[in-house]
Amino acid sequence: MDFNHKLISWYSDKKRELPWRETSNPYYIWLSEIILQQTQVKQGLPYYNAFITQYPTIFDLANASETSILKLWQGLGYYSRARNLHFTAKHIVNELNGKFPDTYNDLLKLKGVGDYTASAIASIAFNEVAAVVDGNVYRVLSRYFGIETPINSTLGIKEFKSLASTLIDLHQPATYNQAIMEFGAIQCKPKNPDCSVCPFQDSCVALQNQMVDVLPVKLKKTKVTVKYFNFLVFMDPNKKTLFEKRTKKGIWQHLYQFPLIESEKSLTPEEFHLLNFEDYVLKQETLDYSLYNEADIVHKLSHQHLHTKFWIIDVAELPEEAILIKTLTKYPSPVLISEFIDNFSF
């Protein structure tokens, strides 16, 4: 039995029952693929269910506000996915008359859709022979064929895409693509896979050569930068505070946060006292503050580690843009901020 037939046989017996596998609707498949980028199934599934409940059609998603979409996305991370999701929904509804592109090449033109996502949608929704290559596929192919080319190198990306395209089942592209991704997710796992029950144990190069733990090869990650964040949690007698929308490009774009001052190191209360708050309060002489967390809360992102302190500042009066504290949870905010709101006793 050749590679793809054995893989499909395994899939028919071992696959997980997931809602996006019960449909060929491109909207649902696209939604699931965007959610599952950088996200495990167990974390993404509740979000998928929430989105199709609140936005059952692409027209519903297109007509929603960005704020409501970001709020529903809250906690899933990589928020550019949600912004691209909304942009693309509006594009399909307004420019394509609500008709989802039905070929790999046309899908690639959509914002937020790259080679992998276009291949997945084209094959699963439209049965096009377009091989997927994601993290799971890289791992399966590198181990089975013993390929040591770094998967995140230009050469590796081309090599694995070419190999995947030669292996895909021409008659069952949708099933094959889902099978190899599922195999990497639950059988050929990143760490400590149970090779004793693997259907490829007799032909896997990595297993035969004791290379399972070293494959796939990946070039060294981008250097992680450290930043020091000081969030200013203002509180006035009217139970109001300041909550700002991040408009600049970068992390958390269009999400809300308390006013932020970045510093070159973790500040002591004495150093914090020297900061200027004129942009935020009307009567600075009445300012009184305390530190919520003495030890920095370290929030780790893919390329940044944020060392964070929350400063509670009591003031006599805030500017007109201040909002009621009780409305804070209505705004989409990063997990770091939403967890503080949930835990702090306002």
From TrEMBL:
Keywords from the named record: 4Fe-4S, DNA damage, DNA repair, Glycosidase, Hydrolase, Iron, Iron-sulfur, Metal-binding
CDD domains documented for this protein: ENDO3c, NUDIX_DNA_Glycosylase_C-MutY
GO molecular function: 4 iron, 4 sulfur cluster binding; 8-oxo-7,8-dihydroguanine DNA N-glycosylase activity; adenine/guanine mispair binding; metal ion binding; oxidized purine DNA binding; purine-specific mismatch base pair DNA N-glycosylase activity
InterPro entries xrefs: A/G_AdeGlyc_MutY, DNA_glycosylase, Endonuclease3_FeS-loop_motif, HhH-GPD_domain, HhH_base_excis_C, HhH_motif, MIG/MutY, MutY_C
Catalytic activity: Hydrolyzes free adenine bases from 7,8-dihydro-8-oxoguanine:adenine mismatched double-stranded DNA, leaving an apurinic site
Cofactor binding summary note: Binds 1 [4Fe-4S] cluster.
Enzyme class: hydrolase
Signal peptide per UniProt: none
GO BP terms in the entry: base-excision repair; mismatch repair
Pfam family, one: EndIII_4Fe-2S
Gene3D superfamilies: Helix-hairpin-Helix base-excision DNA repair enzymes (C-terminal), Hypothetical protein, domain 2, Nucleoside Triphosphate Pyrophosphohydrolase
HhH-GPD domain residues: 35-186
Cofactor: [4Fe-4S] cluster
EC numbers on record: 3.2.2.31
Family: Belongs to the Nth/MutY family.
Database matches in PANTHER family: ADENINE DNA GLYCOSYLASE
Function: Adenine glycosylase active on G-A mispairs. MutY also corrects error-prone DNA synthesis past GO lesions which are due to the oxidatively damaged form of guanine: 7,8-dihydro-8-oxoguanine (8-oxo-dGTP).
Protein name, as recorded: Adenine DNA glycosylase
Organism: Winogradskyella pacifica
Lineage: Bacteria, Pseudomonadati, Bacteroidota, Flavobacteriia, Flavobacteriales
